Amino acid sequence: MTDMDYLDGNAAAGLLSEVFSADITSARGKCAHCGDVAVIARAHLYTDDHGMVLRCRICGDVIAMASERAGRLCLDLRGLDWLELEV
Ligand SMILES: [Zn+2]
Q: Could you identify which of 2, 41, 73, 77 might form a hypothetical disulfide with 25, taking C-beta atoms 3.0 to 4.6 angstroms apart as the criterion?
């Protein structure tokens, strides 16, 4: 994993908009590992054919994963202590 391997967290908007009606990239979340609080757009996004992984911009731990298969989206947010969406 190098600094050139990831996309800006804004690139996660497309897939995550399948789950969240609000703009998820402007949501704030707290990394469960280091406690950093930032908008999702500041996370580092890694993608492949199976889905995406969002990593904390500070510690690099996984904060969210999403994969799409057979018309189903699986979302794992256990790397976040909380996620705050504007309503
Ligand atoms: Zn972190």
A: 41
